[in-house]
Amino acid sequence: MKILVTAKRVEDPESKIKVKPDGSDIVKEGLKYKINPFDEIGVEEGLRLAAKHTGEVVVVSIGGKEVQEQLRHALAMGANRAIWVNHTGPLDQLGIAGLLQKVAEKEKPDIVLLGKQSIDDDQNQVGQYLAEFLGWGQATFASKVESLESDQEKNKVPAVVLSADKKSVQVVREVDNGLATLEVQLPAVVTTDLRLNQPRYASLPGIMKAKSKPIEELTPAGLGVDVAPKIQVLKLASPPARKAGIKVPDVATLVEKLHNEAKVV
Amino acid sequence: MSIVLIVAEQQPDGNLRKASLNAIAAGKQLADKSGGELHLVLLSKDPSKLAEELKGSGAKVIHTAAAPELEHYLAETYAPVVAGLAQELKATFVGAASTAQGKDLLPRVAARLKAAMATDITAINGSGADITFTRPMWAGNVFAEVKLTTPVQVLSIRATEFAPVAGAGASAEVKSFQPKLEASKTKFVSFNEVKSARPELTEASVVVSGGRGTKGDFKEVEALADLLGAAVGASRAVCDAGWVPNDLQVGQTGKVVAPKLYIAAGISGAIQHLAGMKSSKTIVAINKDPEAPIFQVADYGLVDDLFKVLPALREGIQKLK
Amino acid sequence: MDFQLSESQRALQDAARKYARDVVRPKAPHYDETSDFPKDLISAAFELGLLNMAIPSEYNGVGLTHLEQVIVCEELAWGCAGVATSLIANDLANLPIILSGTDDQKKRLLAPFGEKLKLSCFCLTEPAAGSDVAAMGTTARREGDEYVLNGSKCFITNAGYADQFTVFATLDKGKKHKGITCFVVEGRPQGLTTGKHENKMGQRASNTTTVTFDEVRVPAKNRIGEEGEGFKIAMATLDNSRPLTASISIGIARAALEHSLEYSAQRQTMGKPIREHQAVQFMLAEMAMNTHAARLLTYESAQVLDEGQRNTLQSSYAKCFAADMAMKVATDAVQVFGGYGYMKDYPVEKLMRDAKLIQVYEGTSQVQRLVIAKELFR
């Protein structure tokens, strides 16, 4: 079984994002970069599936030379090899999905696992675009119900379950008002939600081994994909600040303010 | 003449998902600004009841497709039908509410239409051919103005930013059409609904949320919610700890809410949580820690133990009634 | 010279930081309070390869360079200095084998550490022979193809839980340091006993006991180096380990600085956060400056080793400066916190207690100064 996972390079979710005064971009100085947390969950799920069904995990990232850091992170977690699509400059979700389509056609994986969204663009599109481009089934927002400390978590069992004939997977999805279960024929695209699993830490021996794992370099031109963006980002702005509130001394004052001032109770 | 096609969503229980009313309002605004007309599409086993309900929503035409295959929503069965209709109508914009279904479906529709898409739009700017959208990025720390340059444009609509359409107005024409169904590689297996007597989080006008400060004891949070007819919400820490079901999570990775009144009890206010509730009209924060970031967005902050405040608050509100 | 960490150095740092933040920190106050042995934290460290960093990869170890080890060790100590000391105790005990063992000894005595969790301890210090190693009273005598050890060691890290003991003993007290020889005792043979866990001021998560040898028999094949080479081996080991103890100081100081920065932004006096008062700013600036200076000295002392050079001078600079620096920085952190800093409810008093030990163990700050002076006179 072969699993293709993605590793987008994004700003560390704990870093403070500020917009440049001219609104052209965010302030990049001093920012740290990480693998997209949802992608990291995808890498973990891929590793669990591969461990259970003796498979290979191939990780792909798109960007300049710096994305090799995220590829090495996935390799250190245990992915077998990496594909780096060397591209600098703007790229939108259509472009990303187009590139991933070509990589998937070349690699012929059984499952492509991606984060449901990346925490920079927050678009939540690429997995779905990719599934349609490939003509594959999709199961987005893969989740699971057990708490993180469950036995299942400890035993590192994949939450995405392969059918007995290995021709389909069953996926529990987090949707509005509940959990939906789908069965998707392979090959399929699965996007990960927050609670699918708890990604393992990269071990030091894993990091050392990752240094010698292969990273194959591809380019958009080589893959024959036109990545000229169809989404123009015209301007960035900070969200409007809320007007400063007040601290009230006691419950009586709070009730009075809610009733007479805010008129909400 | 540009056509704005909004997908209205039927819930598994057969009712309209309320966020669709907000999406239709956004669709109406977009139609007005771009000089076009609003169309709706409804797919299900039997969409007639909902079509009737939406007649007064301001749409020109409501397209309905009925088929047994459309009973359970699947992106693979819905996407070709919506995309096919959009092509037939030569629609310029295709949209839906940013619900789990909307987010799952729309990119697949966009892929069929070779369209670019904007997710979670919070505003529609410009007019005529020069329409742009505002949408959040980086967990709502940044708002971007974006222009989609493909002939067809797809958007998912953040319901909290558009007031829902009311029932009045011109009566829409209901047209049924034969859906172009394709074989799906995906099968619906089951849906486990999390039932609650309280209102749905994203639809409630009052939300009472509990955080780590509750130490998992939600009794006081629930009692206040029930008094106010409110939905119950929670911070990520509380959901991760397994104290309450995951679908109560308010935040960037959970539900985005914007009720009239949001009461945060024992929530410190991580950026992640604030992104999910800071559009609320009035925010009340109750926390023992005077330095908790939640106080920076709260209209009314009270530094005290929630287990003391919530019962007293209930008593105070009861006296008003 | 390159002052930027490489991509893989950053990856190692990140891995150690995650362990320190998510695994160690939540439990650190508990182990400080109870002084129980942090078995769970050590097991987790073993799984992540944070134990046995110095053992070369051909002998199943992680095989980090010295510079990589100090980068990682700073993070461990930032989590909890006591835990960090426990973790690097394995490397300290195994260094004599790494530096002076034969291939056969490395295969037998090092490689098993990669297979399963095993702890080792470094038995040098004695009640009457601390800095004065040559006054060693533990004896070894040859009997056929065995040596027999007698005597006792004190303040031995991990001894209560150790599966292997690296022991220094003298074959002839009259020969002073030229009689000292290094042995490895596997398991807990008859005659080897460990005492009760010491009730320490700081670094309370690390296990510290006495070790007593009463006619303990060691096969001659477990003698590391030649007879009489023990002193040289011990000194080379300490040259190698001083950058690590220095990095523990840096981890403590960085934690103290971070807590102080956070607290001083929140705590208000006279209508503004205390970090807007110049008196506090001066303290914070000194803390940051000295922490960074210690880090650079430490990186250099590790880099010199990686280049295959003797680092006695640089590693004494680093260990001495870093230990004294951490004590000062942690004390200042308590000062920034004021009365709250003195309370166990806040994290900084632990840092002050933890820091003190580094001025004392593996060569006191005074001994480091003697070493530095001796090096200067060469």
Which chains make the largest contact?
Answer: A-B, 78 and 89 residues
Mean pLDDT of chain C: 95
Approximate helicity band of chain A: 25-40%
Main beta sheet of chain A: 7 strands, parallel
Q: What overall geometry of chain A do the principal axes of the alpha carbons give?
A: globular
Q: CATH-wise, what's the superfamily of the largest domain in chain C?
A: Butyryl-CoA Dehydrogenase, subunit A, domain 3
Note the run of SSEs of chain C as H and E.
HHHHHHHEEEEEEEEHEEHHHH
The CATH architecture category of the largest domain in chain C equals Up-down Bundle
| Total domain modules of chain C | 3
Q: Please write the CATH class name of chain A.
A: Alpha Beta
InterPro entries (chain A): ETF_a/b_N, ETF_b, ETF_beta_N, Rossmann-like_a/b/a_fold
Pfam families (chain A): ETF (PF01012)
Protein name (chain A): Electron transfer flavoprotein subunit beta
Family (chain A): Belongs to the ETF beta-subunit/FixA family.
Provide an overview of this structure:
The complex is a heterotrimer of chains A (265), B (321) and C (378). Chain A is built from 8 helices and 14 strands. Chain A starts with a strand and ends with a helix. Chain A has a single domain (2-261), classed as Rossmann fold, CATH 3.40.50.620. In chain A, the strands form 3 sheets. In chain A, strands 7-11-6-1-4-5-12 form a 7-stranded parallel sheet, with helices on both faces. In chain A, strands 8-9-10 form a 3-stranded antiparallel sheet, with no helix packed on it. Mean pLDDT of chain A is 91; it is low at 145-150. With 265 residues, chain A is of the alpha/beta class. With 321 residues, chain B is α/β, with parallel strands linked by helices. Chain B has 2 domains: 3-176, Rossmann fold; 206-320, Rossmann fold (3-Layer(aba) Sandwich). Chain B has a 7-stranded parallel sheet with strand order 5-9-4-1-2-3-10, sandwiched between helices. Chain B has a 5-stranded parallel sheet with strand order 13-12-14-15-16. In chain B, 59% of the residues are buried. Chain C is an alpha+beta fold and 378 residues long. Chain C has 3 domains: 7-115, Orthogonal Bundle (Butyryl-Coa Dehydrogenase, subunit A, domain 1), CATH 1.10.540; 120-228, Butyryl-CoA Dehydrogenase, subunit A, domain 2, CATH 2.40.110; 231-376, Butyryl-CoA Dehydrogenase, subunit A, domain 3, CATH 1.20.140. In chain C, a hairpin with a 2-residue loop joins strand 9 and strand 10 (272-273). At the A-B interface, helix 3, helix 4, strand 7, strand 9 and strand 10 of A face helix 3, helix 4, strand 5, strand 7 and strand 8 of B. Chain B: InterPro entries: DHS-like_NAD/FAD-binding_dom, ETF_a/b_N, ETF_a/FixB, ETF_alpha_N, ETF_asu_C, ETF_asu_C_CS, Rossmann-like_a/b/a_fold. Chain B: One of its GO terms (biological process) is fatty acid beta-oxidation using acyl-CoA dehydrogenase. Chain B: The electron transfer flavoprotein serves as a specific electron acceptor for other dehydrogenases. It transfers the electrons to the main respiratory chain via ETF-ubiquinone oxidoreductase (ETF dehydrogenase). Chain B: It comes from Corallococcus exercitus.
